[in-house]
Amino acid sequence: MRVDIPEGKDPIGYVWGEMVPGIGVAAAKFSLAVYSDSTLGLREFEAARLRVAQINGCLFCQDWRTERDGVKVEEGFADAVAEWRTTDAFDDRTRLAAEYAERYAQDHHNLDEDFWQRMALHYTQTEIVELSMSIGSWLAFGRLNRVLGLDTQCVLPVTGR
């Protein structure tokens, strides 16, 4: 880890909650809201989330699977996300979610008109905003945890969704 954690302290709770409580607590609430309040389907949600996790290299995020009403994506879904261009496991929305996550994280200046036209065919404007905020959360906070070496210590609380 890149920060010193006092003996007996939970690394995530300490860094996010105690070291910078004015920022960390707000960031944690935003991060949790992405999971608890999302209206996106589980497959497109997980495709975008996992693609960001793969790009960030966040170990915890790559192993995590969001669960909704007792349902998680199938085994092998993460492999399909890594191969989003060619997999036959995805519908158009799921494929676009993975593509958007990758381009948002690596090449956001080149989100061209063709891309936005394809997004508009499959997502409402509200869904595009929600997906954008979600990807931003995963990119920022997953990368923060990876850079500081917290990704091996991370545990997300159950949100009831």
For this entry, give a set of tags.
globular, 161 residues, AhpD-like, peroxiredoxin activity, 8 helices, AhpD family alkylhydroperoxidase, peroxidase, mainly alpha
Describe the structure.
By secondary structure, this protein is an all-alpha fold. The protein has one domain (about 10-150): AhpD-like (Up-down Bundle). It has helices spanning about 10-20, 20-35, 40-55, 60-65, 75-80, 90-105, 115-120, 125-145. Helix 3 runs parallel beside helix 6. The two termini are about 30 Å apart. The relative contact order is 0.19. Keywords: Oxidoreductase, Peroxidase. InterPro entries: AhpD-like (IPR029032), CMD-like (IPR003779). GO terms for molecular function: peroxiredoxin activity.
Which structural class do you get from the secondary structure elements?
A: mainly alpha
Beta-strand percent range: under 5%
Mean pLDDT: 93
Distance between the termini: 31 Å
CATH class: Mainly Alpha
* Low-pLDDT sequence parts: none
Q: What is the number of helices?
A: 8
* Shape by Cα distribution: globular
For CATH, the homologous superfamily is named as: AhpD-like
Q: How many domains?
A: 1
Q: How many strands?
A: 0
